[in-house]
């Protein structure tokens, strides 16, 4: 199957045609860099920088997004609450992690794409079935972002008590 069609099916943007072309172009370039570098490359994303774990949830990388949230936010909150001397460093570390996220989180989306593609290819399905399955596996999930924000607010409320 044509690689561009497969990426388009997996990314699955549905908004305006211009935005879809821009997004697909960005991911095609990202995945090409991943292919050339063995799966690990730098490509800047403002969405990943500002949204980090929410970006992962939006791209249906649920396990990765939840893990990111737990490691960064909960551990950071615990450190700042129980080790006040380190609290100043948490802010600097958060900025550094945000910068890394902005350039590297797309690699997790790429790896999920490769894993999904491999699983489907191993079942020897037709091109149409493969494209259909990539559409259902990939795409975006706005509900996960909303749930993530609600959980974030709840966790921060609990830790601030």
Model description:
- This protein is mostly helical.
- It has one domain (3-160).
- The protein has helices at residues 3-11, 17-37, 46-51, 53-58, 62-82, 87-104, 106-122, 127-137, 142-160.
- Helix 1 packs across helix 2.
- The chain is elongated, with a radius of gyration of 18 Å.
- It starts with a helix and ends with a helix.
- The mean pLDDT is 86.
Q: Domains counted in the coordinates: how many?
A: 1
Identify the overall geometry.
elongated
Radius of gyration from CA coordinates: 18 Å
Poorly predicted ranges (pLDDT <50, ≥5 residues)?
Answer: none
Percent of sequence in beta strands: under 5%
What is the N-to-C order of secondary-structure elements (H for helix, E for strand)?
Answer: HHHHHHHHH
Please, how many helices?
9
- Helical content band: over 70%
For the largest beta-sheet, the strand count, sense and barrel status come to: none
Distance from N terminus to C terminus (CA atoms, Å) equals: 54 Å
Query: How many β-strand stretches?
Result: 0
- Supply the helix-strand structural class: mainly alpha
Please, what is the oligomeric state?
single chain
């Amino acid at each position: 199957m044509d690689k561009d069609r497969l990426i388009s099916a997996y990314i699955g943007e549905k908004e305006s045609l211009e935005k879809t072309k821009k997004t697909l172009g960005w991911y095609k370039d990202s995945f090409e860099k991943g292919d050339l570098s063995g799966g690990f490359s730098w490509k800047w994303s403002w969405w990943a920088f500002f949204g980090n774990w929410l970006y992962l949830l939006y791209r249906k990388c649920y396990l990765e997004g939840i893990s990111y949230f737990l490691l960064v936010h909960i551990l950071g909150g615990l450190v700042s609450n129980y080790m006040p001397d380190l609290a100043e460093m948490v802010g600097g570390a958060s900025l550094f992690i945000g910068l890394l996220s902005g350039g590297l989180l797309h690699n997790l989306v790429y790896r999920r794409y490769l894993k999904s593609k491999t699983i489907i290819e191993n079942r020897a399905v037709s091109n149409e079935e493969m494209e259909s399955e990539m559409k259902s596996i990939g795409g975006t999930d706005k509900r996960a972002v909303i749930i993530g924000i609600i959980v974030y607010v709840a966790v921060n409320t609990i830790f601030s008590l």
